[in-house]
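Batch manifest, entry 17 of 40.
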Amino acid sequence: MPEIGLFDAIYSARALRRLKPDPVPEEIITRILDAATRAPSAGNAQNWAFIVVRDSEQRRELGAIYRKASAIASEMYKARPRPAHMTEDQYRRMLNSGTYLWDHMGEAPVLLVPCLHARAAPAREMLPASLDAMYERELAYERQIRGASIYPAVQNIILACRAFGLGTLITTNHIRCEDEVKALLGLPPD
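Output type: structure tokens
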């Protein structure tokens, strides 16, 4: 597959919800995942894993979980005002394309599921006394920003896919059913 330049990839990357069923060669997936692991992470922890779902039954089941989670997201979207930069028609088309994705996610030839391992918090007693009063607030802060370490890798995936002419979509709807996704993919609790 011919590659395109970085800025062409940036300027042409879109959230594509109507994905082609064409197979993706293993060497392309390997290059995409290599690009993901080149991303920066907080403290250089690199506490990520990338699950490649090729099995059609697993993709179908993941799509069913996604459909259930997305039904909740859809109601949330419908209940809030549309973004100011979108016309009513653009917003309706975006919502409709989301519905299409729910029904067809399992048909994509491969799904990449980026995962972030939760880093254990330091034991309270190991911290200086001056931080004791802030301990709970710091834990809440870490939970709030945790995803920031995976998103640079996800952006690299999006750009690498675009460079190879592949469609992508970043979605977090399935996190509403995280335990089901973990069980399906055999992921550990963290």
